[in-house]
Amino acid sequence: MKRIGDSELILNKDKSIFHLHLKKENIADDIILVGDPRRVKIVSDFFDKIIFTAENREFVTHTGLYNGKKITVISTGIGTDNIDIVVNELDAIVNIDLETRTIKEEHQTLNFIRIGTSGGLQSNIDVDSYLVSEKAIGFDGLLNFYKKRNSVSDLAFEDSFKQFTGWNNLLTSPYVVDASNNLLNRIGEGLRKGVTISAPGFYGPQGRELRLETRDKYLNNKIKDFEFNKLKITNYEMECSAIYGLSNMLGHNALTICVIIANRVNKEFSKDYHPVVKNLIKLVLDRLTK
Question: Which residue in 45, 145, 198, 230 has the fewest CB atoms around it within 10 Å?
Fold first, then answer.
């Protein structure tokens, strides 16, 4: 079996994975992903017991027990570039033998649940509400670097979106990936569903203009009006598409649930979204462990 080279799969001296500083025994099968490193403690404060912690750069990990079940929470920082690190390294931990640097014959599936914050793109989406991403659109281009990209993407949705918006060929080609049906039914039951854009930035890529003009100042209006198979685009955030795309290609389950802290159409922002995020964390933990 082919051995993966030292420069491709980088390990630390203690044989933990390079960026995350984790080994297989340090993580659970159910992994909550949050952007903000400080939000890791907010999640783990709900645990009955914390059994492991690690920290390197923006990547903070707490593993513990909740309702008797092992759960891991990891901060990813902001952006799909960080998701490329986090998901690939977590997959490597469970599906590559780090001693022999060979891929294991038996595949292990992980469940990734992102809890985040987001901006709504439809006027009827209330600030401080929850939204589950049943599809994600990547404006970042990350998946386009991977050979299996088309096999996990909704190509008809992509083509329709590019045609409707008059997508500029200087921009990365968007990709569209579905959430895990398993997690969508298990965690997202009864919650509002939508289509989420992951942008490669907070300002220009999401249509904000401070001192720099955007290339297409009408893009957000086009996004708001776009519809495909009765699906409307509902919100912006910055990580979901890469989580869905990489998870689909690597054989894992993924779901994103966000608190809508702003409505871009109505120009509204939450007065205090932190209690709402805590309530969402409790909801996800309860549904993961019931």
Answer: 230
